[in-house]
Write a structure and sequence with these properties.
Layout (H helix, E strand, L loop, with lengths): L9 E4 L5 H12 L3 H12 L2 E9 L2 E15 L2 E13 L8 H16 L3 E5 L2 H4 L6 H4 L2 E2 L7 E5 L11 E5 L7
Parallel strand pairs: 4-5, 6-8
Antiparallel strand pairs: 1-2, 2-3, 3-4, 3-8, 5-7
Length: 175
């Protein structure tokens, strides 16, 4: 079932006073508190590279976060980002709000000079933004390969020869 188009959201950086509304959106979207704890730990550890919300009529309806990720290869580390989580209020899902958040975030990440982004999620959803399971196959990850996807944030693929182990922020508890 598709919802009708929504009022254009104000996509903006997170403010400290947004935290409780963000927690509510994440909890409702994921039906639990694990992702709320992840976001809180990423914030406390200073590992957030970009965090945006979609606000409609004064209410937070969506949230996206990118944390620092490292690609370790032969003792060297390349800086990258990990998208997690992306949350949209259940009543606002399938309205384009998640897509608007991803697209706005990607533009800002390019402006920051970020080169590649990794996401763990549904390839049918994230594939529309240029994320690729095949491109991520060259990396060692603690997560299932069929859901691990990579997007080059630049037109060229400067990291095409990069391989290695993905080192997530400590909040993920996988290292």
């Amino acid at each position: 079932m598709s919802h009708s188009p929504v009022k254009q959201p104000d996509i903006r950086p997170v403010r400290e006073q947004d935290r409780s509304m963000i927690d509510g959106v994440i909890t409702a979207a994921f039906d639990g508190a694990d992702e709320v704890a992840l976001v809180r730990k990423l914030a406390a550890d200073g590992d957030i590279m970009l965090e945006l919300v979609a606000e409609i009529d004064g209410q937070i309806a969506g949230h996206i976060l990118f944390s620092r990720l490292w690609v370790e290869q032969s003792g060297n580390r390349l800086a990258a980002v990990a998208l997690a989580p992306l949350a949209v209020s259940p009543e606002m899902q399938r309205t384009g709000l998640g897509s608007a958040l991803v697209e706005a975030a990607h533009k800002l990440l390019v402006q920051q000079g970020q080169v590649l982004s990794i996401v763990l999620g549904d390839p049918a959803y994230y594939g529309r933004f240029g994320y690729s399971v095949a491109d991520a196959a060259q990396f060692e990850s603690p997560y299932p390969a069929q859901y691990l996807q990579l997007k080059y944030l630049t037109e060229s693929k400067p990291c095409a020869t990069i391989q290695g182990k993905l080192i997530y922020a400590s909040a993920f508890g996988e290292n």
